[in-house]
Amino acid sequence: FSFGFRSLTEGKKPDMVFGIFLCRGDITPEICRDCVSFAINDTLIRCPNGKEALVYYDECMLGYADRDILLHPITKTGQLMVNQTNVTANQSDRFNKVVLSSLNEAAVEAGSSPRKFAFKKANYALS
């Protein structure tokens, strides 16, 4: 957990599982471990018979599948849970511009960072 990333493979064909986790670059190994542990348990509760899962939380993401997800990423969605705070239809264009601008700035900053992590905060007020 000290590096915030790990991929692993367990089992033998046809009963192999490929797993991966990635934690945010600004959290401690302990917070990373707690987030990954929560993600594992939460995924097993929500998808007890699933052969693949990809979940994102504030501090980490976790994925597993019956194939190498680094070579063959999970692209289909099943249960999708989103933030319940809504932006009204007449505000969505302006909101999306703020999000896109922040993401672009963070991507540039993360690309030049040794930990490949950046954080951007943007203010958005309904008008």
Automatic annotation (TrEMBL):
Highest taxon of the lineage: Eukaryota
GO molecular function list: kinase activity
InterPro entries given in the database record: GNK2 (IPR002902), GNK2_sf (IPR038408)
Xref: Pfam families: Stress-antifung
Keywords for the protein's UniProt record, in alphabetical order: Kinase, Receptor, Repeat, Signal, Transferase
Residue span, Gnk2-homologous domain: 1-69
Record keyword Ligase present: no
Record's protein name: Cysteine-rich receptor-like protein kinase 5
Upper lineage: Eukaryota, Viridiplantae, Streptophyta, Embryophyta, Tracheophyta
